[in-house]
Design brief:
Subcellular location: Secreted
Strand content: under 5%
Cofactor: Ca(2+); heme b
Organism: Dipteronia dyeriana
Pfam families: peroxidase
Number of strands: 2
GO molecular function, one term: metal ion binding
Oligomer: single chain
Strand order of the largest sheet: 1-2
Order of helices and strands: HHHHHHHHHEHHEHHHH
Largest sheet: 2 strands, antiparallel
Structural class: mainly alpha
Length: 340
């Protein structure tokens, strides 16, 4: 890339001949080295990357109905820690404490093997070109659209981090046990607003959650020795059968009891019926006076409105502090930095 000084010289000589060229050159001087994400980043270097990713996700969905939700969760948990940089994919090493071992991820996040399969397929077609961070973003879109949800043009051009942030993963990722104000604050810190919060929570329209993440709502909510009063009583009964009081905390329940594997707006109707599985889900609707209530009602009444907002919020989330240009690297193996 030419230096700022060179750009100035070019601008001086070209501005006399063309106002348009002068405008372009001023742009070069102001932004000499800052790359931006865009939808055509791999148009010449790996034009089939979206198809490659989609094919692997589609094949995996045939034997693992949960994988779509698992892949979008990886992208979510990645972006909330130091931005969308693929740091969640790094294994432990001499210099890295893996985010996989952070509280929100350990014995919980899954789909890493599928990411590796996607990476292998992409490398076979376009070696050393596509970042693992971009693969997560593409896999999230494919997971949603293949499950009946919206499609969107994924912005690309992220590069992969050289380190992980286990401590950040412990503190930055929203927890299912947190109140709405805390979760709203965590979204705000990364530049996401109330609509983003509600829309992205709508990803819980498919996938599963372990009993340990909500069993407190079934038996001893907030130390009361009673269930969460906002929970639908028949829903409570069915969940207690899946998650007995002294049972394994690792049994799983559908996040959406109505259409567990389809991406639709039933999640929001469930909240209106007090059938949100996680505390963080139900509080979007049951917190008196919260700004989220109006958004929940809007999405419950219009799937089109939800789909449109969800696609935009995924783009917004994918824009959280990406590494671009010469920052970071393109990992050849998503589990480790190059040369390690």
């Amino acid at each position: 890339m030419e230096t700022t000084t060179t750009a100035r010289r070019r601008c001086f000589y070209s501005s006399m001949s063309s106002l348009l060229m002068a405008t372009i050159c001023v742009t070069l001087m102001i932004y000499p080295s800052h790359a931006q994400l865009n939808t055509t980043f791999y148009a010449t270097t790996c034009p089939n990357v979206s198809t490659i990713v989609r094919n692997v996700v589609q094949q995996t969905l045939q034997t693992d109905a949960r994988i779509g939700a698992s892949l979008i969760r990886l992208h979510f948990h990645d972006c909330f820690v130091n931005g969308c940089d693929g740091s969640i994919l790094l294994d432990n090493s001499g210099s890295i404490q893996s985010e996989k071992d952070a509280g929100p991820n350990t014995n919980s996040t899954r789909g890493f093997d599928v990411v590796d399969n996607i990476k292998t397929a992409v490398e076979n077609s376009c070696p050393a070109v596509v970042s693992c961070a971009d693969i997560l973003a593409l896999a999230a879109e494919a997971s949603v659209s293949l499950s009946g949800g919206p499609s969107w043009n994924v912005l690309l051009g992220r590069r992969d981090s050289l380190s992980a942030n286990q401590g950040g993963a412990n503190t930055s990722i929203p927890s299912p046990f947190e109140g709405l104000s805390n979760i709203t604050s965590k979204f705000s810190v990364v530049g996401l607003n109330t609509t983003d919060l509600v829309a992205l929570s709508g990803a819980h329209t498919f996938g599963r959650a372990q009993c340990r993440l909500f069993s407190n709502r079934l038996y001893n909510f907030s130390g009361t020795n009673n269930p969460d009063p906002t929970m639908n009583t028949s829903y409570l009964t069915s969940l207690r059968q899946i998650c007995p009081q002294n049972g394994s905390g690792f049994s799983i329940a559908n996040l959406d009891p109505t259409t567990p594997d389809g991406f639709d707006n039933n999640y929001f109707s469930n909240l209106q019926n007090n059938q949100g599985l996680l505390q963080s889900d139900q509080e979007l609707f049951s917190t008196t006076g919260a700004a989220t209530v109006t958004v929940v009602n809007s999405f419950a009444s219009s799937q089109a409105a939800f789909f449109q907002s969800f696609a935009q919020s995924m783009i917004n989330m994918g824009n959280i502090s990406p590494l671009t240009g010469s920052s970071g690297e393109v990992r050849s193996d998503c589990k480790k930095v190059n040369g390690s």
